[in-house]
């Protein structure tokens, strides 16, 4: 639900992204068994056959590099190439690549080549090897052949916001909530088909037991895979709505937060592929009834905020965020108006508020930060499907502006 513990340990104080369900194949005229029927939680491919090929050794001096990028809808795509192992030792050694942008909504058909520029390397948890060499995942951004960032390259936008701000060593901690569904893409895990749970929200958050927690195996697999990959994943927990889970990435410095969060989403996508469950990042996947939505709460701390007296820098940053509330809402995710209702631990989308320990505010200051006089703040407005490059870049641009803005009165402590 928040990244408070992870950050304090360091500082001392509207659409689903999974691919559409494949069409079920009909049995052939020969009466053969249909091996690709959809069955939640179980692959219909023969794992013994898969294991046979996975046991084959890799050739000396070669690695597999999975190039990952963000498409026009904000979802992750990837493709694989073979490279000399030496190329994988540093991102600057990796060659650029290309893809057909007309198939991803990122280029016209008559000029479809989009260039992939490697930005960050992670170990590949899906192709481990035991010879002391790592296959790799490569986070990339996207350009025209002439070298111009294409419109969907939000990393390039964020990079401009962070440029020249290295001295602030800004930390971001991102809390990624998501909802797991059966393969019908309508029924969350733990819900009866065409029905609702027989108990309201309450017992599911940070829960244990088969009647409360649905999807722990998926989240644990994601956790291990992210740790193996080298991501700064700092925790997980079951969320308030049954079938909903969360993990936290960070603290990460600057634009690396966006790189790591997008790669973690790619890994989540792959893990769900393995488990044969459908994963949604929609901020309000269930709109009928009293059920929480899903967010990507964003924790922020600059060097100044972490130093003695940093609470004043935190408040000034919050006032600046309030002055540009609607600008931030515009880049904080699709469908967020369904989530930011003023209920279910959210503030209203129409009004900016902040408070201490108040999860009904737009921005929250933790009690430890208030007591210590320094630390971080949490922007609770970004939705679960928000683009982390746009979110972190917009926050950075706003709080670094040299402008005078009105002071905002905090919500009463009694409302926390």
Description:
With 416 residues, the protein is of the alpha+beta class. 25% of the residues lie in helices and 21% in strands. It has helices at residues 4-11, 47-54, 154-162, 216-229, 256-275, 303-306, 311-323, 325-330, 336-339, 367-372, 388-399; strands at residues 62-70, 76-84, 97-100, 113-123, 136-143, 171-181, 233-238, 244-253, 278-280, 296-301, 354-356, 363-365, 377-379. The strands form two sheets. Strands 6, 7, 8, 9, 10, 11, 12 and 13 form an eight-stranded mixed beta sheet that branches. A five-stranded mixed beta sheet has the order 2-1-5-4-3. A hairpin with a 5-residue loop joins strand 7 and strand 8 (244-253). Helix 3 packs parallel to helix 11, helix 4 (216-229) crosses helix 5 (256-275) and helix 5 runs antiparallel to helix 11 (388-399). The longest helix is centred in the middle third of the chain and has 20 residues, at 256-275. It is globular and about 65 Å long. 43% of the residues are buried. Residues 2-35 have low confidence and may be disordered.
């Amino acid at each position: 639900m928040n990244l408070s513990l992870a950050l304090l340990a360091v500082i001392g104080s509207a659409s689903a992204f999974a691919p559409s369900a494949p069409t079920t194949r009909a049995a052939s005229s020969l009466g053969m068994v249909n091996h690709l029927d959809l069955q939640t939680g179980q692959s219909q491919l023969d794992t013994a056959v898969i294991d046979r090929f996975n046991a084959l050794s890799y050739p000396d001096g070669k690695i597999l590099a999975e190039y990952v990028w963000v498409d026009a809808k904000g979802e992750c795509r990837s493709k694989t190439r073979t490279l000399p192992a030496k190329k994988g030792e540093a991102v600057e050694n990796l060659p650029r690549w290309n893809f057909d942008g007309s198939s991803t909504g990122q280029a016209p058909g008559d000029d479809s080549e989009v260039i992939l520029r490697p930005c960050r390397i992670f170990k590949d948890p899906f192709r481990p090897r035991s010879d002391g060499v790592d296959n790799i995942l490569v986070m990339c951004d996207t350009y025209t052949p002439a070298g111009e960032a294409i419109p969907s390259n939000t990393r390039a936008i964020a990079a401009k916001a962070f440029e020249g701000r290295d001295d602030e060593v800004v930390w971001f901690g991102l809390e990624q909530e998501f909802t797991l569904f059966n393969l019908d893409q309508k029924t969350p895990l733990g819900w009866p088909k065409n029905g609702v749970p027989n108990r309201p929200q309450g017992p599911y958050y940070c829960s244990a037991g088969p009647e409360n927690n649905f999807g722990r195996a998926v989240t644990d697999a994601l956790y291990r895979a992210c740790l193996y990959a080298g991501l700064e994943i700092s925790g997980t927990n079951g969320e308030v709505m049954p079938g909903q889970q969360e993990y936290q990435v960070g603290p990460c410095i600057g634009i690396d937060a966006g790189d790591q969060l997008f790669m973690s989403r790619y890994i989540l996508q792959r893990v769900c592929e393995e488990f044969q469950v459908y994963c949604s990042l929609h901020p309000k996947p269930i709109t009928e009834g009293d059920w929480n939505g899903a967010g990507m709460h964003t924790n922020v701390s600059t060097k100044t905020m972490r130093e003695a007296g940093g609470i004043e820098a935190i408040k000034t940053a919050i006032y600046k965020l309030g002055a540009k509330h609607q600008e931030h809402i515009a880049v904080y995710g699709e469908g967020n108006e369904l989530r930011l209702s003023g209920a279910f631990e959210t503030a209203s989308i129409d009004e900016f508020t902040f408070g201490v320990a108040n999860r009904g505010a737009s921005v929250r200051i933790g009690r430890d930060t208030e007591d210590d006089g320094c630390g971080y703040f949490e922007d609770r407005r970004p939705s679960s499907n928000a683009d982390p490059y746009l979110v972190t870049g917009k926050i950075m641009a706003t709080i670094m502006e040299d402008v005078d803005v009105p002071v905002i009165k905090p919500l009463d402590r009694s409302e926390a």
